[in-house]
Amino acid sequence: MEAGEDFGPWLARQLKLADMTQTELAVTVDVTRAAVSAWITGRATPRPETIERIARALGTDLATVHTRTTDTRAGLPVGWYHRPGHADGGRELGNAAAFAFDADVSVLARETCQNSLDERITANGRPVRVRYTLHELTGEDLARFREALRWDDLYPHYEVVREQKQKVGRVVDAGLRDMYERDRLVLLRVDDYNAAGLTGDDYDDGRFAAVVRRQLDSHKSGGSAGGSYGLGKATLWATSRLGLVLINSTLSEPHEGRTERRLIGRLDLPWRRVGGEACAGPAWLGRPDPGSPGASVARSWWADEETTEALHLTRESAEPGTSFLIVGAHDVASLADDTAVPDGDEGEDDDSIQRMHRRLVRALGRNFWASMTGGGDRLPLLEASVRTLRNGVVVVPEERVDPTVSQPSRTRALKAFLDGSTVERLTEAGQVAAVTVPLNLPGRSGGRTSLGEHRAVLLVTDAEDADGKPNRLVTMRGNRMTVRDSAVPGLPLAVNPFQAVLLAGTAAGPQAPFAAEAEQFLRAAEPPEHNKWGQTEELTLTYSTSAYRRINGLTRETNAAIKTLVARPKKGARQGGGRLAPKLTIGSGKKRRLSAVSMPVLEELDAQVVEGGAWQVIGEIKIPPGGHAWRLVPVAKFDVRSGPRPTIEWAEVTGIDNCQVVDGTLRFADNARSATFRGVTDPATHAVRTSLSGLVVELRTGEGESS
């Protein structure tokens, strides 16, 4: 049961909310002014019969005064406060931070889950639990929710905004049409448990003010936090067609003596003029603050259970954390989702809650499989699930995201590392090889000296079909969110499919040297999207303009280590030849005339798209007897259905085995029976985007071949 607030602070706030002085209360309940002052300062408590009179004076019931778990209903009512237009006439036509991200539930899942990981309560060692609830309201359920939301007070603002010739106006118009023409409103709620909650004052520095009151304020708990720009929270409002998010937070640290049901709502709209009054943009749903001029500014309030339930914000337990309710949620990216539709869902809409459910599950598994993996004596950092309702009835049961299903090979690799069961070399299927790779950390403030060498951990294991594309490297740091998922370049043609994971910073474990320093360095090297490590302004300002080269060095060392681990052993010499074979000669020694019969043939071709949109191809050429004398030129072309195939220029062509490239032609080693080359195309010469095209590679005769 929730513990009540101390009587003194509670009474002081109720007097403020009711706009009543201590003297006025003293007269009403027939006590002295000094007695009221003693109650508020905690020097005394009122007798039971006096408490009854206090309840009547505040216009509430006796139980509310005894329990003190909620504010009285007397005084200033909960309502919407719209920030007045700027006195100098300035206008903001939208929240710029919200435009940094797409209205995509995959992006929402990445940003919100990262924030929950950052605010995880670590003292108890338990994971943070995040649950996503899609809830479609129609008919009477929608009408009751609008009433609890005080929709009639908001609608005039939406009517003005939908007429504005801006992107926000078009999005709002789509949201209103969805509600009124289809009688439908989608709520998307994000709950986390075992998290800090929105602690702190409504206005001063703290988690609450950073999320609800401010832009670009990143109030994080530790050095391994994923976010550092304060942009991620904007995805909540960007995912709402109505720019509206309601919040209910259970605090890990009491505020005003309370922890449960701290409610607030925030609306983000462009500048508008409604009823002759100019509004700057944001608005808040809350209780008017008597301390503000004219008691007009809305602040958070401690809601009762009935109000919390009406706003669909009831939490399942008193465990600390926060619930964000996105009103009018939509998913633009799902409209282009070309994944197969399961049986029974053929008739669903493109923006259906079932499709959004699937995309959330996929995104959580793709980005946070490592955070959901435990091993040894360490529990997972995160548990995540998705459920879908319609008018309170289950449409898709709660689905807990299982990392062994979404990323089986990588999960196996990380678990082996946590269990301490890795090996040095891969000799059997299912093994996980682990090596360390160096990251030379620069000194801060432009110094040229090295801070020290961090040893990141590289894990390599066999790939499985369920992983998706093989031969890829996933990188991460302390919170174990996937930062980058990229193909490994320059691999030999003959390698078994694999998956690789690089654990850097504190993710490399407590034994890794300079782990905390590496964590800070890599955090500074992440852009707002947190999707790579490279040169950023933060990295340049904190370290130096050349600090990013340390990351390039880490990448080179990692790729080299991967190639060493996955390379197949070279074949031994054939029996009967040995060292004498090159000395043996056949025939008269005359120069053989080359013919089409002896021309080398491109027998195997492995191609993949690498970073920057280029094709990387590795070709294996079969060389018949005497064919080594040919000079051949590999030519890349787009594969088209009809007409001539457009040629693509090479950015690089190199020989790998039994050949070298001279003036653009392949020259083969004497008596070679096979050769391998690698080519990378120049994206600037691509007539078609790589992801939408096919590739053909031909071998043409070059200069210098015998006729």
Describe the structure using short key phrases.
26 strands; twelve-stranded mixed β-sheet; elongated; 707 residues; single chain; alpha+beta; five-stranded mixed β-sheet
Report on this structure.
26% of the residues lie in helices and 26% in strands. Helix 1 crosses helix 3 and helix 6 crosses helix 13. The strands form four sheets. Strands 1, 2, 3, 4, 5, 6, 7, 8, 9, 10, 11 and 12 form a twelve-stranded mixed beta sheet that branches. A five-stranded mixed beta sheet has the order 13-14-17-15-16. Strands 20, 21, 23, 24 and 26 form a five-stranded antiparallel beta sheet that branches. The longest helix is centred in the C-terminal third of the chain and has 19 residues. It is built from 18 helices and 26 strands. A hairpin with a 2-residue loop joins strand 23 and strand 24. The relative contact order is 0.08. With 707 residues, the protein is α+β, with helices and mostly antiparallel strands. The C terminus is likely disordered.
Low-confidence stretches: 223-230, 335-348, 571-593, 703-707
Number of helices: 18
| Secondary structure: helix percent | 25-40%
Rg, Å, rounded: 33 Å
Overall SS class: alpha+beta
Query: N- to C-terminal separation?
Result: 94 Å
Topology overview:
Layout: H1 7-17, H2 22-29, H3 33-41, H4 48-58, H5 62-67, E1 79-84, H6 105-118, E2 128-137, H7 139-148, H8 151-162, H9 167-181, E3 185-193, H10 207-213, H11 234-238, E4 240-250, E5 262-268, E6 272-274, E7 277-288, E8 298-299, E9 301-302, H12 305-310, E10 321-329, H13 353-368, E11 382-390, E12 393-400, H14 403-406, H15 408-419, E13 432-442, E14 450-462, E15 472-476, E16 484-487, E17 498-503, H16 515-524, H17 537-542, H18 548-566, E18 601-609, E19 615-622, E20 631-639, E21 647-648, E22 650-657, E23 659-662, E24 665-668, E25 674-681, E26 694-701
Parallel strand pairs: 2-11, 15-17
Antiparallel strand pairs: 1-7, 2-3, 3-10, 4-5, 4-10, 5-7, 5-9, 6-7, 7-8, 11-12, 13-14, 14-17, 15-16, 18-19, 19-25, 20-21, 20-24, 20-26, 22-25, 23-24
Helix pairs in contact: 1-3, 2-3, 6-13, 8-9
